[in-house]
Structures are given as C-alpha cells and as structure tokens.
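Thread title: Can someone regenerate the structure for this chain?

I was given the following input by a collaborator and told the matching structure tokens would be attached. They weren't. Posting the sequence so someone can regenerate them.
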Amino acid sequence: MLSRANRIDTKESSLEMLLFHLFGRDGDGPHDLPVAPLTLLSDSGEKTDRFCMRADPVHLRPDQSRLLLFDAGVLDLEPDEVKALVGSINELVTQWGGHLEAPLPHRWYLFLPEAPGIQTTPLTQAMGRDVGPLLPTGPAGQEWHARLNEIQMLIHDHAVNCAREQDGRPTINSLWFWGGGSLPEQVDSTRWDCLWTDHPLLTGLAAQAAARQAGCPQDGDEWLARDCRQGGSHLILLDELERAVQYGDIEAWLEGVEQLERRWFAPLHKAVADTSLATLDIRAADGRKFRISKSALRRFWRRKRQLKEFAI
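Best answer:
Regenerated them for you:
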C-alpha cells in the first residue's frame, strides 16, 4: 500500500502536533500545545479554567555523562506512593502559587495562577533520551531549572523512594513539565464522523469538540464489521509502536509491525481493494501522509519497496 500510495509531506513533526492539526488547531508560535488541559479532561472529566501543565513522574538514569529519561511506564506506581509523593511536593509548589494533582498514577498535573513563561519538550520526545538539551527554555527557563532541582532534592530521600530502592525498583527521582496551557474554547471536529481511540489526548480533543468517540477496536475486521460501512470519515489512532520507537527497542518494534500488519493493514487493504473503503489515509507522526485508493492499488508499475525504506 505504501509503495503505491500518493505521498504527501506535511509540517507536523510529533503525534501531538498531528492530533491538534487534525482538529483545526496548529501551534501558537513559541507556546506549548495545550496538551495538559485536554488529557486532564480525558482523565478526570474536569474542564478546568486554570492554567495547567503536565508534571509527570519519571525516572532519570545516569549513562556516562548523560541522564536518560524513563517514563512512568517503568515505575509501576502504587496509589499510596503517589499520594505520599504528591503531598510532599505540594508543600513546595504551593510556595510558587501552584498545586499538584494526580488523577491517575502515571499522569500528574501542575496548576498555576498564570503561564510560567517557558517552552517545554513533550514527554513522548524525551523518553529514552538525554534530558540535558530538552529542559525548559524561554524567559523563565533558568527559574524552572532551579524549581526542578528543588523537587529532585525533596524527593531524593523521600520514604517512598527509599523503600523502592531497597526493593530494587526504579525511583521517582524527577518530574517532567510539559504541555502547559489553557483549555481551547473551540476545537473543530466537523471533518470526523467518529473517532476510535483510547489515547488520552485524542479522547480529550473529542470530548472538547463534543464529537462521537469510541474505544479503539481490537483489529480492522472488528472495525469494518461495525457502523463504519455506513460511510463518512473516521479517525483511528494506532499507537502501539510508540514506546518501542522512543526507547529504540527494535525487537518490540518488529513484533508490533507484524501485529499491525496482520490485525489492521491486511483487512484494510482488502477493504480498499473491494471498495468497502473509498480511501485510506495513513498518517505518520513525523509528517508523512499516504493516501490509498483502489485505483492506486492498480499501479503495478510501481516497484514494491521494503518497509525499512519507509521507516528511515
């Protein structure tokens, strides 16, 4: 399908940018995309009018002269651990006029009285990487570096981390600030008849847009058997490969690609060939878009390229 598709290169360079673009909202200059208030809406149902940003618990691991970031997926946080850590951190952040909340163990939120004057790096772009070049920048960047250091010092010897260290479990030794903003008042979903996803950002966008939304089906056959055959435009988010890409796990990526081919792309290819689907767009989070139709599949003169050629 990729070999015979029409390829269109767009300007989006991350999953967050792509999802906002698909809802009619692009980046606002140097400001962060307001991921936090939308994932908060997904996590808790709260439509906040406060400025908030994600303050996710992470583990920083020394690697020679670098500090590599690992997200909460490696931490296996217990509710009591989260409650104790958030309570201690709040004693500090209240001095800044802020307040920390954790509606879910792996997604935390920092509420502030006003925008902090920083630009941040999405957690998805920091996972598995050296955090040094990815720390907040902007007019208040240095101030927030200092605040982050205060938090790290506070939780370094925290009882929760001492217990985890004794048990041989990775510690929660930092937070990752990102995705700050206010809840967008208007989000355009008119191009989509249904959104199929379990992703918190897309779920939040759907909720804010009052769009029809359902959980992601197990495979393409299940989706095709549902009301998608009535027509319209549907958006399905398949993010199974995200962690493998971020952490450079080649074996997990290869296994995930095989599963996606079997569960999704083989049935979708068949549906395009028999015109059950008029058009299939495959959007990659790096800005590439592939449009496939039955007429495109007939381009026998285009040589079949190996998947690795598209993965570079």
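The chain has twelve helices and eleven strands.
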